[in-house]
Amino acid sequence: MALKTLEKILKKAKKNDFISISELMTGIETGKFSRREISKHIFKDSLNAIKIGITGPPGSGKSSLMNMLIPILRDNKLSVGVIAIDPSSPITGGSFLGDRVRIKNAIDDKNVFVRSMGSRAELGGITELAEDFSDILAFSGKDIVFIETVGVGQSEYSVSEITDLTALVFVPESGDEIQLLKAGILELADIFVVNKYDREDANLMVRSIKNIISSTKKDASQIPIFKTSCKTGDGVEGFANALIKFYSSINKNESVKSRQMLRFSRKVKNIIENDIIEGFWTEKRKKFLKKMNTKDTKLESPYDMVDKIKDL
Ligand SMILES: Nc1nc2c(ncn2[C@@H]2O[C@H](COP(=O)(O)OP(=O)(O)OP(=O)(O)O)[C@@H](O)[C@H]2O)c(=O)[nH]1
Ligand SMILES: [Mg+2]
């Protein structure tokens, strides 16, 4: 019964039915549908979108930027999906109003789908869920899927693992922050954006980024740094055009292809590891471990314990 329903939902989601897309996402999130089953149905048809990570410190203007990029992408006949992980600012309804940033096209344009995601799941789980959501959006026919994550730190690592391109958004005030960043994080960014360019010291920030990446990245001169202002609109079109160009070159882009292959093999490895672990922890073994915890086990080596559990 459940399968029949899922098939129906999948059929409709493929035709970009808003409710069915949401149902698939919620189904995976709540465990009503198996991600394994869904993946089997959608994978082939989810390879035509590009996934772009938009990440950076809280309040740097990631949502505002997407809000301004979307109409430009739509004018270029590209459909857009947005997944915002743990947003602290509202992302649906209304329009860009002073300090309230919203992604306005979500409401009346069926070719824009916005979904926010809480951080309820554990860290690894969120990335996995975001990847499932982005696959569903790609399956529904979206050309560009943005994944917005807040933070400078761990979250960049995970978002860059599931995207074809990662944009790191800074603001003129991020100077100190960027000095503290580990080279590894900068290494993951394919594009830099200095937003709020209407503010003082914006140029200084661009110079800081240039300095830092030229000492860490081999091809630093090839890394674009966009200067944008969501207040005046300056620079946003240039950023949008770069994304559009990236979208059109996706099939010829070797680095994207190798990134996708890497992503695929990592995913296969993860699934195998999870399956093995899940298979290992039978009820009997779990019970044994629980009971063991209540005893004084200090005298026994953990390796001996492992052997005992394995023998069960
Ligand atoms: N002056 C100026 N303010 C901006 C600009 N872009 C965004 N803002 C303001 O910055 C604040 C944060 O913008 P958001 O778009 O919510 O930033 P965000 O990075 O998505 O924030 P989080 O999702 O909470 O991390 C809002 O008050 C915006 O109005 C800009 O280019 N210039
Ligand atoms: Mg935001």
Count of spatially separate domains:
2
Assembly type of the chains comes to: single chain
CATH class of the largest domain: Alpha Beta
Kindly report how far apart the N and C termini lie: 36 Å
CATH-derived architecture of the largest domain = 3-Layer(aba) Sandwich
Largest sheet descriptor: 7 strands, parallel
Count every helix, treating DSSP H or I runs of 4 or more residues as helices: 13
Proportion of residues in β-strands: 5-15%
Structural class: alpha/beta
Summarize model confidence as the mean pLDDT: 85
Describe this structure in words.
By secondary structure, this protein is of the alpha/beta class. The chain folds into two domains: 201 residues, P-loop containing nucleotide triphosphate hydrolases (Rossmann fold, 3-Layer(aba) Sandwich), CATH 3.40.50.300; 44 residues, no CATH class. The protein is built from 13 helices and seven strands. A seven-stranded parallel β-sheet has the order 3-2-4-1-5-6-7, with helices on both faces. Helix 9 links the parallel strand 6 and strand 7. Helix 1 packs across helix 2, helix 2 runs antiparallel to helix 5 and helix 4 crosses helix 10. The chain is globular and about 65 Å long. Guanosine-5'-triphosphate binds next to helix 4.
Structural features:
312 residues, alpha/beta, Rossmann fold, 7 strands, binds guanosine-5'-triphosphate
Task: Set out the fold topology.
Layout: H1 2-14, H2 18-30, H3 35-42, E1 50-56, H4 62-75, E2 80-85, E3 112-117, H5 123-139, E4 144-150, H6 154-161, E5 165-170, H7 175-180, H8 183-188, E6 191-194, H9 202-216, E7 225-227, H10 236-248, H11 254-280, H12 283-294, H13 302-311
Parallel strand pairs: 1-4, 1-5, 2-3, 2-4, 5-6, 6-7
Helix pairs in contact: 1-2, 2-5, 4-10
The protein binds guanosine-5'-triphosphate and magnesium ion.
Guanosine-5'-triphosphate is lined by residues 58-64, 87-89, 99, 101, 150, 195-196, 198-199, 229-231.
